[in-house]
Fold this sequence. Notes:
The structure is a single chain. The protein is α/β, with parallel strands linked by helices and 237 residues long. It has 2 domains: 28-160, 3-Layer(aba) Sandwich (Rossmann fold), CATH 3.40.50.300; 165-229. It is built from 8 helices and 7 strands, in the order αβαββαβαβαβααβα. The protein has helices spanning 28-35, 56-69, 110-125, 146-151, 165-178, 185-193, 199-216, 223-229; strands at residues 44-50, 74-78, 97-101, 129-134, 157-160, 182-183, 220-221. Strands 2-3-4-1-5 form a 5-stranded parallel β-sheet, sandwiched between helices. Strands 6-7 form a two-stranded parallel sheet. The longest helix is centred in the last third of the chain and has 18 residues, at 199-216. The protein is elongated.
Amino acid sequence: MAEHRQLPLPLSPTVVPTYDNFQHGANSLAVEVVQQLHKTSDAAQLYLWGATQSGKTHLLLAACNEFISLGMRSFYVSLKEQTLSSNLLESLDGYSLLAIDDTDIVAGRKDWEHALFNLINFSREQSGKILFSASAAPASCGWELADLKSRLGWGPVIKMEALSDAEVRHTFLQAVNSKGLQMSDEVVDYLLKRHSRDLNSLLQTLALLDRESLAAGRARITIPFLKSCFAGLDYHD
C-alpha cells in the first residue's frame, strides 16, 4: 500500500486572502461580523476562536486586505513568531485595524498579558478596531490577568468550525476551475490523500501546479505530471 505523507511545500503565500475566496461553511456569522468592522467609526473588537484549519487566519488577513483597499492602515501579526517582543504592541499607533493572530500562545506570560491589556485599552480610547484569534474562548486560555480575560470578551466572541472534507474539496475544485486547469477525480483524490487538509496550503500547492503547467504548456494535470512537480521535494509515493 502506498504511504500517505504530507507534501512538504516551503512556499510563500501566493493566494491573497479575501472574503470572496473564503469558504464560509458553518462560519457565515463570523464572516458577516468581520465585514462590518470597517463600517463603524466607533471602537470595535472581535474575538474568533476555533480549531486549526477553521479559517481564522484567512479572515484576519482578509480584513486587513479590505482595510488597505479602502485606504486605511492595518497591521497583522501572529504571536506564534518566537522572536517577537511584547514591546511590539506598544508601537501599534495609527492603524485603523489591528489583527492579532494566535493570541493564546502568550497566555501566562506576564509581559505579554499586560501589553495586550494596555493595547485593548488604548485601542478603545482611539476608537480603533481589534480582531483577535485564538484556539479557545477567553475563559479557557489560561490567562492569569483577570482584567485581560474580561477585556478579551468585550466584543463578540465567535467560535469557528473547521471545514468538512467535502467543503475543502469543493473549494479546491473551484480554485482549479478558476485557473483553467483540468483535474480528474482520480488526480484530486491522489493529491488530497497526500496533502495537508489545510485549505491555504492546498491553494499554495495549486499555485505551484499552475506555474508548472504554464511552463509546460498544458492545462491537464495528471498523476505523473503531479509527481514530476514534486520530484525535487522529500516526497515518497
